[in-house]
Specification:
Radius of gyration: 23 Å
Number of domains: 2
Shape: globular
Number of strands: 3
CATH class of the largest domain: Mainly Alpha
Number of helices: 13
Helix content: 40-55%
Order of helices and strands: HHHHHHHEEEHHHHHH
Low-confidence stretches: none
Strand order of the largest sheet: 1-2-3
Largest sheet: 3 strands, antiparallel
Length: 340
């Protein structure tokens, strides 16, 4: 088969397979789903070969996606990935050179590049106070303590083994293990020890000693720190655990005037639909904001959460200007007084 005769679906599968060895599982999955939207649309337009793609094709696709009322950042990311895909097609001579430049990647305001949704500090405090008093050492208690106090990514917490927790020295060790299914987003550059406070180590110690952790191994013989009954949980399972752990009715009355005994959001499959439950990424965003508000220097926060200070400032620090004044600059006012 000549490269120009590849169908959009065949080219898509070939591109993702080509990128997989150099990408994390998360990145490969992201590529897969971003391009899946385009491939399915192209098939509905009866586009049989990539050689049929034109600038008009991409113009119509962008218009169709924008009409689906998706977030501006989502549209931008999908069109950016599509341009990378077409550049690959240019390289293998499946399409004419320069076709990728006909793909419009919309520009967006800095405020639209990331979501403002986060686990707010008061909500995190109320949840952790409840867990420390009434569910000390439960899996969801230990999970939320780590997510909130460390600010790590979903893939990083999923990849932790029991041996990565050092109770006596009070730290967690994050390691890149792509060969056994738990890569870090930044690979070797994501490896680091992260110090833990007393409440976090107390929660982890209780979690490991009271029998809350399933005593299982994963498919590679490793003992995951946060284990499911079947071994190492999938990313989606950890995501669901986090939604369940952040339901507001756990520590108080429902802010949405619903009866928790009859609310479908308290069910595992529906927890993500609760307006106040939060995903691991939203907990990470709240944690980073809280750490900065607590006076931890941005350079230190960057190492703990494995992100550059610029990335933190642009994507994760969701404090309002008033909050920055009160929590981060107010303490310096006394230093500005003229000495008598």
């Amino acid at each position: 088969m000549r490269p120009e005769d590849l169908s959009p679906r065949e080219a898509w599968q070939r591109y993702v397979d080509r990128r997989r060895p150099e990408s994390t599982d998360h990145t490969a999955t992201t590529l897969h789903y971003r391009l899946k939207q385009f491939v399915e649309w192209a098939e509905k337009q009866n586009i049989e070969a990539v050689s049929d793609l034109t600038g008009w094709t991409f113009e119509n696709y962008e218009t169709a996606r924008a009409g689906d009322d998706i977030a501006p950042i989502t549209l931008r990311n999908q069109m950016k990935t599509l341009r990378q895909f077409v550049r690959y097609l240019e390289r293998i001579e499946a399409v004419d050179d320069g076709l990728s430049e006909k793909i419009h990647v919309p520009k967006i305001d800095a405020s639209e590049k990331s979501s403002d949704t986060k686990l707010a500090t008061p909500q995190a405090r109320a949840l952790l106070q409840y867990y420390r008093e009434f569910e000390h050492g439960s899996r969801r208690h230990a999970l939320l303590e780590v997510l909130w106090n460390v600010g790590c990514r979903l893939g990083a917490i999923r990849g932790l083994d029991a041996r990565d927790y050092h109770s006596g020295e009070q730290y967690l060790e994050f390691r890149h293990r792509p060969g056994t299914g738990t890569p870090l987003k930044k690979k070797r550059n994501g490896e680091r020890p992260v110090a833990l406070s007393d409440p976090v180590t107390d929660a982890l110690d209780a979690y490991l000693t009271r029998g809350e952790r399933w005593d299982v191994h994963d498919d590679h013989g490793r003992r995951p720190l946060f284990a499911s009954r079947l071994g190492r949980p999938s990313q989606n399972t950890v995501r669901v655990w986090t939604y369940m752990a952040t339901l507001p009715c756990i520590h108080g009355e429902c802010p949405h005037d619903r009866n928790p005994q009859h609310c479908e959001f308290t069910k595992r499959q529906e927890a993500s639909k609760c307006p106040s439950s939060r995903s691991p990424h939203q907990v990470r965003t709240g944690s980073i904001t809280w750490q900065l508000d607590s006076g931890v220097p941005p350079e230190v926060v960057a190492v703990r959460v494995n992100a550059s200070p610029d990335t933190i400032s642009q994507h994760y620090d969701k404090a309002t200007p008033r909050e920055r004044m009160e929590h981060r600059r107010r303490s310096y006012v006394d230093q500005l007084r003229l000495q008598q």
